[in-house]
């Protein structure tokens, strides 16, 4: 007999061309740094930027309890660093969220918001030089390096 509910997800990570800019003096920056100050949150964040996963998948992959993973997923989601991309069902029929990064990449700028216009102009020059296809890749690599350097 076939399954009535989808037990897997084929959702992929989609990225916009325009990142969301957060400057060091924005309240949002404090949320991001507080959330990513946890090594566990960093591990989960990096993993979800590779592929969308459920809490159970992450727990299995990282060798953690689902409760521990759920706590960090809640913090990451509250900080808008991840989002629910899809829903699937466990073998027991329980609904499970599939998490991944939001479509709008986050660009952290370690300068004041008064420098925002110059940074945006520089980013646009950089973006036109590398091409729109490479922008999300470059942003993702920069964020991964930033997160990795905090360990």
Would you identify the CATH H-level superfamily?
Answer: Winged helix-like DNA-binding domain superfamily/Winged helix DNA-binding domain
CATH fold category name: Arc Repressor Mutant, subunit A
* Cross-sheet strand order for the largest sheet: 2-4-3
What is the succession of H and E elements? Answer: EHHEHHEEEHH
Number of structural domains: 1
CATH class: Mainly Alpha
Binned, the helix content reads: 40-55%
Structural class: alpha+beta
Total beta strands: 5
Through-space gap between termini: 48 Å
Percentage beta strand: 15-25%
Q: Architecture, according to CATH? A: Orthogonal Bundle
Determine the number of helices (DSSP H or I, runs of at least 4 residues).
Answer: 6
Stretches where pLDDT is under 50 for at least 5 consecutive residues are: none
Biggest sheet architecture: 3 strands, antiparallel
**Rg for CA atoms:** 17 Å
Morphology: elongated
Would you tell me the overall average pLDDT? 82
What does this molecule look like?
- This protein is of the alpha+beta class.
- The mean pLDDT is 82.
- Helices cover 48% and strands 15% of the residues.
- Strands 2-4-3 form a three-stranded antiparallel sheet. Strands 1-5 form a two-stranded parallel ribbon.
- The protein starts with 19 loop residues before the first strand and ends with a helix.
- It has one domain: Winged helix-like DNA-binding domain superfamily/Winged helix DNA-binding domain (Arc Repressor Mutant, subunit A).
- It is built from six helices and five strands.
């Amino acid at each position: 007999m076939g399954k009535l509910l989808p037990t897997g997800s084929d959702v992929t990570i989609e990225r916009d061309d325009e990142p969301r800019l957060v400057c060091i003096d924005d309240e949002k920056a404090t949320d991001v740094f507080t959330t990513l100050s946890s090594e566990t949150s960093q591990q989960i964040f990096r993993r979800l930027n590779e592929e969308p996963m459920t809490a159970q998948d992450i727990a299995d992959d990282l060798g953690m309890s689902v409760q521990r993973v759920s706590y960090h997923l809640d913090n990451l989601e509250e900080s808008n660093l991840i989002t629910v991309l899809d829903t699937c069902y466990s073998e027991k029929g329980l609904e499970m969220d599939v998490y991944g990064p939001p479509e709008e990449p986050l660009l952290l700028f370690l300068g004041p918001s008064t420098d925002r216009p110059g940074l945006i102009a520089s980013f646009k020059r950089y973006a036109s030089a590398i091409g729109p296809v490479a922008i999300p890749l470059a942003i993702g690599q920069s964020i991964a390096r930033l997160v990795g350097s905090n360990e």
